Amino acid sequence: MSEMFMLMKWPLVACLLLPGILVYLGLHIVRREVIFVDLALAQAAALGTCLALLLGHESGDWQTYLWSFGFTLVGAAVFAMTRTQGRHRVPQEALIGTVYVVAAALGILLLSRNAKGNEELRHTLIGDVLLVSPDQVLTTSLIYLIIGTVHFAFRKQFLLISFEPERAASEGLAIRWWDFLFYALFGLVVTSFVQIGGVLMVFSYLVIPAVCASLLAQKLRSLIIIGWTVATLSSVIGLTIAYQFDFPTGATIVCSLGSLLVLTLVGSCFKKPLIVSSLR
User: Fold this and answer.
1) CB atoms closer than 10 angstroms to residue 121
2) Threshold 0.85, pTM exceeds
3) pLDDT digit string (tens) for 173-194?
4) Per CATH, the architecture of 2-268 is what?
């Protein structure tokens, strides 16, 4: 047990501490009905990493981080400018899917020129949370704390544009500006976690706890509590199974999240469907 704790201590801290803001942002994403925007931005961050590696930087270098964040900023600007409401000939999800596919393809092309291309491609997908360092956890936690402070300061605007966009428009909010700020902060979160957990873990932590919560609760506070509980349980279960059976850690955590989603779906069949309508 002590050997397991020593090996899994910092991965456990990372998986318990860092997904907190991912769960909250995931509630926004689910409510906006742009489920794959996180996957697209995560892949954009991964593309920035691939380019930095091709330019000779290491995955942990600050230059690599800047390249990744720069690519997510471009994605944030695109998604903010193309936000749609009501019926449109081309839904935003089509653009989001295109960004993801093209970014993934470009990443593969870039890594094909790298001697360690296959290994790096695998790392961008599932990461290597087992090798996370105390410095990474501390730095990422500080970034998340700053982002969380900004979200708290402007919670009214962010909640309105995600949960009540019609009301936000009627009150004269500059929706595209607030959308860009939301996606820029979101991209910073995604960039930070992609360096640790990879694209699949980012998507899973963002979407699955939020979906589980939405199936069981209405109020924002309840949604957050349920989402955090799902993320915490999945992290502990996934890390334990990965250690016991020597499975890849990131993939195991994703499967644990998926398993809890299945259980939540089964449980939700025994109660009336709920609609998220309250911000309190």
Assistant:
1) 18
2) no
3) 888 888 889 988 988 888 888 8
4) Orthogonal Bundle (1.10)
